[in-house]
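Researcher: For the record, we're logging two predictions in this thread. I'll number them. Prediction 1 follows.
Model: Prediction 1, sequence and structure:
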Amino acid sequence: MDIPHSSVRLHQTLDEEDDDCTLLRYLIEEDQPNYELLDDGEEIGSIVAAMDEESTFHRTIHERRLVPKDHADGEARIMRHYFGANPVYTPEMFRRRFRMKRHVFVRILNGVHSVDRYF
């Protein structure tokens, strides 16, 4: 006698549900002591307070002192030192600093500037 395909699927589904129920029952039984602990509000409060005391530490917070910087002057100085008519830094120093030759950097800069005037 052949068992219809849908009947086989139904039995597999029921078996999986039984397995799920068995697993769920097992997990609930294993966690039962935790559930009993959660029923006692005072005990939970004392545990939380103890954990808070363990985790608190004191540190001194120092305010940072602001150092005034002239960013505009710094940018102008970089432009003079690297891109001016008489650059301070040699082509080798430029390559070491920017990891590319100056003409490649200028070509990239011009390409970006043609797309976005911000740069």
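Researcher: Logged. Prediction 2.
Model: Prediction 2, sequence and structure:
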Amino acid sequence: MIVKKTFKLFASVIILFSLVLSLFISPVAANNNNTIEPKAVERYTKTVNVACHDPSWGYVTVKVTISHNMTTGRFTVDSATGTGHFNAAWPGVKLKSVTTNPAVGSVINGSIIKVTVYYTNIFDLTSTTHHASDNIEL
């Protein structure tokens, strides 16, 4: 009888010791400073045609790629590219750049992205850079 009680006590101490030991040895995500990886990121493209200075000059098609991180709920501007569709009657009109507000790589606060295109007419004596803007709604 004493042997049974001693065995039960010894087995209980061993089990309790192993549980406590496993708690201190096992890695915990908070101790490793791990970040939460997004489980689902949705990417989609929005397109807008921005009319140039004088509509007879043409327009620029801007494609903005947006990502939506469903884990955090944040929208981000991934990229913005423009393709110029200029009138052949204005051979000097060239696309210089495309910008967005919020900028590429930034988190979108609100539901509107402002797209601005910069273009120039190389035959213009003043070398003026023109710009035109339009909005994209999420």
